[in-house]
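Support case: 2-acetamido-2-deoxy-beta-D-glucopyranose complex. Customer-provided input:
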Amino acid sequence: MAQPLCRIKRRPVLLLLLLLTAVLHAAGAHQNYPCKPPYFNSFPFCNSSLPIADRARSIISLLSLQEKIQQLSNTAAAVPRLGIPPYEWWSESLHGLAGNGPGVRFNGTIPAATVFPQVILSASSFNRTLWRALARAISVEARAMYNADQAGLTFWAPNINIFRDPRWGRGQETPGEDPMIASTYAVDYVSTFQSQSGWNPNSSFFGAKKRDLADSDSRRSSMMVSACCKHHTAYDLEKWRNFTRYTFDAQVSAQDMEDTFQPPFKSCIKEGGASCLMCSYNKINGIPSCARGDLLKEIKQQWGFDGYVTSDCDAVAIIFEDQMYASSPEDAVADVLKAGMDINCGTYLLRHTESAVKLGKVREEDIDRALFNLFSVLVRLGLFDGDPAKQQYGELSSDHVCSKEHRDLALEAARQGLVLLKNDGGVLPLTRSSLASIALVGPAGNRSEVLGGGYSGVPCDAKTFLDGLRDFLPSTVFAPGCPNTSCLSADGFEEAALVAGAADVTVLIAGLNLTEETEDHDRVSLLLPGKQEELVGAIASSSKKALILVLTGGGPVDISFAKDDPRIGAIIWIGYPGEVGGQVLAEALFGDFNPGGQLQVTWYPESFTDVPMNDMNMRPDPSRGYPGRTHRFYTGEVVYEYGYGLSYSAYAYKFLSAPSIIRLRNSSSEPPCEGDDEADYLRIDDRTRCEDLGFRVRFLVMNNGDMAGSHAVLLFSRSVASISGSPKRQLIGFERVFTAAHGATEVEMLVNPCKHMSAANEKGERILVLGAHVLMLGGEEHELLIFA
Ligand SMILES: *[C@@H]1O[C@H](CO)[C@@H](O)[C@H](O)[C@H]1NC(C)=O
Ligand SMILES: *[C@@H]1O[C@H](CO)[C@@H](O)[C@H](O)[C@H]1NC(C)=O
Ligand SMILES: *[C@@H]1O[C@H](CO)[C@@H](O)[C@H](O)[C@H]1NC(C)=O
Ligand SMILES: *[C@@H]1O[C@H](CO)[C@@H](O)[C@H](O)[C@H]1NC(C)=O
Ligand SMILES: *[C@@H]1O[C@H](CO)[C@@H](O)[C@H](O)[C@H]1NC(C)=O
Ligand SMILES: *[C@@H]1O[C@H](CO)[C@@H](O)[C@H](O)[C@H]1NC(C)=O
Ligand SMILES: *[C@@H]1O[C@H](CO)[C@@H](O)[C@H](O)[C@H]1NC(C)=O
Ligand SMILES: *[C@@H]1O[C@H](CO)[C@@H](O)[C@H](O)[C@H]1NC(C)=O
Ligand SMILES: *[C@@H]1O[C@H](CO)[C@@H](O)[C@H](O)[C@H]1NC(C)=O
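Agent response - structure generated as follows:
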């Protein structure tokens, strides 16, 4: 962009100038950026040789109180006299660029962006290399969109709340129910998304290196784009019965807080180096999340957080208007600014901060503190470094969005995440040569809008399930069966049964859509929506061969009926597979790849809906018939357990080596371990020297099948002794492993007992139970003694 402008300067022909300006506009590049020469680049905040903090302070020092207040909203105002244009903080990038916030716009030269699978599906791959590759690809598209003036630089992803209850409408957006997985995913997404290093425009997504993880140098320095750990904290209820997220008071025990709700946030910040934290709508033990100064202080001081804190949208207004926690709008503003929140998604701070200052409830220093965090992040992103086209990422353009590489990655993610739940008598894979016709049934079969799930943008080129099957077998016939996934009418059943009866094989797409589970909407039942179960029954009766049932959606579905029905040969869960979902389903059915995804959430039976969703307790309480939640604590029956997933092969494991005894300390001068009535344990805190205590577990993964494949190996442990509220088991290691047909792969995992095998006691202190522990790998077990 620079060269034509230089030429104009020398030959100022007005017509040419206008023409070129029009061309530049059409190309969608930024016209209006801060520090634009010749007048506005002389401010100290534009000098990239100065330290970040000095540049941030320089801006603040030049603003009047009114101008400062205008910066406290997601739509931050321009400061024309300083050459600063407006900035939109709110862009979304959960599984690709999404138009949910005003920051991302698909109305320019880039009309679409890759819709990768919804997070719960990609997470089911248990593949960290894949997670990093996704974050890198999304960051490349994000920066390209910014260069085209169609996005900001600050993105409000990932969603790392624990998928605590199967009814949660936004569970689909998360990596699932396990805190160790959510923590790992958070670190991978954030560190890669933000990182400068390992980025190469020519190989946009394989550039994400393992090294990035602990790249502490980049913490306070430049970023490619900014990620946000949301929603802090204990946020996992939308609208269920008479509870809504806007007023819900999550009653969380210190124990659950320490070992379920906080670990993902702690990792996201400490290891991921996140530059943003979003405080949630709900209250936590009576106090609105954005007013929890105690928690925000701990995050800054103990976790080293140095980014900005944004509220969820309108989460400050509700503190006064809905929660009635504050007694005036000004008090709500004071509560959050004093607590350490920096910016409000919404206009509440724009409207009420000035009067809060006049009333003496907020000081100008409180605002300056917030602005320092905000401007520091924008400086790190290069916003004040001049023309985006001339910057490090200036060459990222529409060529880098919807690229072949990104489409291949979207395919890869859906393939790796897809979960095979049932395959009786080897119904799958189908053999192409012996098939004359396939019937596809189901309301989602020919609809592209069901592919992405929540927070989807405009897809580059969506492939429906019907498109995908027709690529394999052009004669595939289709009948929706129901008008939509709500399936309130059986009018289409007869047509669908005829279509199914005439085909060699029938594939039925059932399951969930955003109508059943989405933001601001939880499910009340875990069964298939509407008359879908009847549809499955009708089609199963009329199909020639055993039916293949495919389930869409993020949350678990109680499909016990289908699990036990011999007329249903196979069941696949495909989540929200992203824009290439149709191709991936067909590939799975025909055995072009070997399914190896495993569930990231427990599939509970319908009876679980007797458990109140608002009960935040993770631990079971037999005295009141409370079964607990997630694979770590739940004591009831399951439809499919956490980590479940079949393949076209059969895998077996064998421990090769693991220690039998671990000694945690070697000097008697250290304080003795603590104990209670039930078991001895060791307190783990920042002073505990655990780093050197990691041990290696080596094992063999054997593929006893005829097809090569990748799947995740999950290493669990349980302690034989327990204290009150000890988990039944916990995940202490995972890795996706490739094994050749009839081959074996040796795997090594590093386990840190303090980090991975500890849990919280009732006081919320992290402890490690001493004595015998059992490592579990499939059905194999290995016993280990931990001594102090
Ligand atoms: C930018 O800051 C550096 C370091 O203080 C200084 O040497 C340089 O003169 C400044 N540049 C401009 C254009 O002011
Ligand atoms: C795209 O939409 C935004 C917001 O609605 C608007 O401000 C902008 O002018 C539009 N851009 C184009 C090229 O139409
Ligand atoms: C993990 O994902 C990467 C990136 O898609 C892929 O290259 C690799 O094969 C995957 N690993 C396994 C074991 O499937
Ligand atoms: C990317 O490829 C182009 C064209 O092949 C080349 O000119 C450029 O130097 C490459 N960039 C990097 C960072 O490798
Ligand atoms: C919701 O309804 C239940 C039973 O009708 C009642 O006990 C409870 O107080 C209500 N909760 C709220 C937040 O209104
Ligand atoms: C599938 O959907 C497309 C686009 O909505 C439509 O044109 C086509 O007729 C549909 N195909 C069938 C078999 O229903
Ligand atoms: C899926 O949900 C969206 C949003 O509620 C709706 O517009 C669409 O019609 C639904 N599609 C189907 C097939 O149910
Ligand atoms: C689903 O279809 C029914 C008609 O059977 C209609 O009343 C309802 O609005 C549709 N739902 C959606 C989300 O489109
Ligand atoms: C154990 O003691 C030895 C000798 O005092 C010391 O070198 C070593 O670092 C200690 N190990 C741990 C894990 O503290």
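The radius of gyration is 27 Å.

Case will auto-close in a few days if no follow-up is received.
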